[in-house]
Specification:
alpha+beta; 5-stranded antiparallel beta sheet; Lipoprotein
Length: 180
């Protein structure tokens, strides 16, 4: 039951992230009308449209972890149970927000560090003390969620690769879990 709830929540995040700042996946909306991931081709893992190599899930995980730990977060001991068949297409990194001196500042600093690493901010939404920022790099979409203003100290970074192959895997996983 717990796994089913996590998968349902992850699927919701995937769908939200996949649509964040996107016009049918073209990413031509937003400021400047530039495609996501069109940063310099000399950047390591700069994305296929930049002439670089495609980012891997491991590279995305490393970028998130480096930015988050540099901003004062420690990795939570539990929380990232990405299904095995989605591990090449999805990354979940959850810090232990309770241990951070100022989780809201650490979340903002993590997003800023990711921006310096080539991630483009697509959209930021603030409501009731929560901040959700959508970022993109190459074919990857990242949802940085900070819900640390109240008693619940929850911060999450969930990235999804929006290639057609990964989108097919997400849809198949969602259908499989609907039937469970």
């Amino acid at each position: 039951m717990r796994k089913t709830k996590w998968v349902a929540a992850a699927a919701g995040v995937v769908l939200l992230v996949a649509g964040c700042g996107s016009n049918d996946g073209s990413d031509q909306g937003g400021s400047g009308g530039r495609k996501g991931g069109s940063s310099s081709s000399s950047e390591t893992g700069g994305g296929a449209e930049a002439g670089g190599t495609e980012l891997t899930a491991d590279a995305v995980r490393t970028e998130i972890e480096t930015a988050a730990t540099g901003a004062g977060f420690e990795h939570a001991a539990k929380g990232e149970n990405v299904p095995e068949n989605l591990k090449a297409c999805m990354v979940s990194w959850t810090p232990d927000a309770q241990k951070a001196a100022d989780p809201k500042k650490s979340a903002a600093d993590t997003v800023a560090a990711l921006g310096k690493g080539g991630w483009k901010t697509e959209k930021t939404t603030e409501q009731s003390g929560s901040t959700i920022t959508g970022l993109s790099k190459g074919t990857w979409k990242l949802q940085a969620s900070d819900h640390s203003a109240g008693m619940l100290k929850l911060v999450m970074f969930v990235a999804t690769n929006n290639t057609p192959a990964c989108e097919a895997l997400f849809k198949a996983d969602l259908e499989k879990n609907k039937k469970s």
